[in-house]
Amino acid sequence: MIETKFNINTNEYLPLRDVVFNTLRDAILTGKLLPGERLMENQLADKLGVSRTPVREALRMLELENLVELVPRKGAQVLDMSEKDIVDILEVRSALEGLATSLACKKMKREDLQKLKAMEADFEQAVSERNVERFVEIDEEFHDAIFESTENVKLIQMFRNLRIQLYRYRMAHAKQDSVMTTIVAHHRSIIRAIENRDSEEGSTVAHSHIKFQTESILRMMHEKQ
Amino acid sequence: MIETKFNINTNEYLPLRDVVFNTLRDAILTGKLLPGERLMENQLADKLGVSRTPVREALRMLELENLVELVPRKGAQVLDMSEKDIVDILEVRSALEGLATSLACKKMKREDLQKLKAMEADFEQAVSERNVERFVEIDEEFHDAIFESTENVKLIQMFRNLRIQLYRYRMAHAKQDSVMTTIVAHHRSIIRAIENRDSEEGSTVAHSHIKFQTESILRMMHEKQ
DNA sequence: GTAAGAAATATTGTATACTGTATTGACATT
DNA sequence: AATGTCAATACAGTATACAATATTTCTTAC
Fold first, then answer.
1. Structural domain boundaries of chain B?
2. Residue A12 pLDDT more than 90?
3. Is B14 part of the contact surface with chain A (CB cutoff 8 Å)?
4. Do A88 and B153 touch (CB under 8 A)?
5. CB of B176 within 8 A of CB of B130?
6. pLDDT tens for residues A13-48?
7. B224 touches chain A (CB under 8 A)
8. Are A88 and B152 an interchain contact pair (Cβ–Cβ within 8 Å)?
9. Are B165 and B67 in contact (CB under 8 A)?
10. Residue B163's closest CA among B146, B187, B180, B179?
11. Distance between CA B217 and CA B225 in Å, rounded?
12. What is the CATH code of the structural domain delimited by A83-224?
């Protein structure tokens, strides 16, 4: 990488607690740590080659992200999610997505809208290649762009929190037949609403988008069993 | 309080980190700790008579509640809130309140609705006594009851998080002339919507309720300066 | 063999000690 | 006086030590 005159990236330092936090979060989200699994401070500290202090702080952070449960004097364990939890989360997400999309209709800059439209082609390519991983990646970018355009820090923050909790289900969901095609269609409607600066329409479409996602995730969960 | 045969309240133990957390949160919310103020671990530990460990953990928790800002290797300080932050929070709250009220229209139990209606009299009494403190207290109960009725844990949790951040402004806001009367009127509309099981109406009224609150808080802030 | 209870162990809670970095202030240089 | 340098200090980051409690294992009584 070419260095600029003034080194921007002066901040290569990350406290161990953040390293541990990221490591554990990744492990939980990718299923390396399973729901219900106990997380013992000493064991984690040894495995990660650090002391208990940063591990403890990381666990506190994971608790507030709702990824682990902390019982005083008992310890931590990876939180399991019931079907109801997922429905609850998606219900809230629907409200946030509605707000975000309606705000995007009002506030999104033309150049950002262009980027959104450019994603359409990427989506279609991913679909035709049946590249679920890539698809999910672009999907994340797509929704992120919408929330970013609202310039509402709090809204963005809450959305990210919800998304992390659904992370474990995002792949399996998109793998289902015809789901990707439907999602692409929804996204097109969302883009059109933003183009037309039609907040009402944007909100409505966003709601039905998440409604579809909810149904699709539930269908998947029922099939799995 | 009368003790039951089996002591329910077996859990009198609270980790120090939670004690410190509560203490600091209270201090911030009641203005004993002012925005911008530095929070030094040693100093706090001394003052509270504990070691640095629980203080550090409490600070991490306060960070995730967005009450303090933590800069690595610099320390913590009480977060200041700009007008934009408040507007952002209220924008999100409006979406959540809309969702909650519309769900309440569908799901609230008859007996809980009765409780809500019973609050009307309390509100009116507080207004006639010009008892702002009491008014704010009932107001909190009122909205809490609505969110509780949704039975959506995630929604309740996010609502509480937002409310804490607005806590500092809730009194000053209600103190303004005629604000309390308007709020009571809004609440009546909300109750009516729930009674009629009219989700659409509930959502609309909730939105306008928060819109009013936003305008009123902003007006207050501008007058203060 | 099972249940109750006590000892042993494991684990979290808390305090303290140590390390490294950022800040501050004194002093020197210009 | 303004600026730069270095030492002193204060502070957060991390590790470790100790205390308290939960869990497990092992007896012992029946």
1. 16-78, 83-224
2. no
3. yes
4. yes
5. no
6. 889 999 999 999 999 999 999 999 999 999 999 999
7. no
8. yes
9. yes
10. B146
11. 13
12. 1.20.120.530
Say how far apart CA A43 and CA A29 lie, in whole Å. 20
Q: Which nucleotide is nearest to A42 (CA to C1')?
A: C11
B128 CB-near residues (< 8 Å, 6+ apart): none
Contact (CB<8Å) A162/B152? no
Of all nucleotides in the shown strands, which has a C1' nearest the CA of A73?
A: C12
A99-110 mean pLDDT: 98
Q: Which CATH class is domain B16-78?
A: mainly alpha
Closest CA to B162 of B224, B223, B101, B81: B81
Are A158 and B91 an interchain contact pair (Cβ–Cβ within 8 Å)? no
pLDDT tens digits, B197-212: 999 999 999 999 999 9
> pTM of the entire structure?
0.90
Do B174 and B139 contact (CB within 8 A), yes or no?
yes
pLDDT per position as a tens digit, A148-185? 999 999 999 999 999 999 998 888 888 887 899 999 99
Burial grade of A190 (CB within 10 A; 0-12, 13-18, 19 or more):
buried
φ, ψ at B39 (rounded to 5°): -115, 105
**pLDDT, tens only, A44-99:** 999 999 999 999 999 999 998 999 999 999 999 999 999 999 999 999 999 999 99
Q: Answer yes or no: are the C-beta atoms of A200 and A102 closer than 8 Å.
A: yes
B56 part of contact set with chain A, CB < 8 Å:
yes
Q: State, as a whole number of angstroms, the distance between the CA of A18 and the C1' of C10.
A: 27
Counting as low any pLDDT under 70, the low residues of chain B are 1-12, 224-225
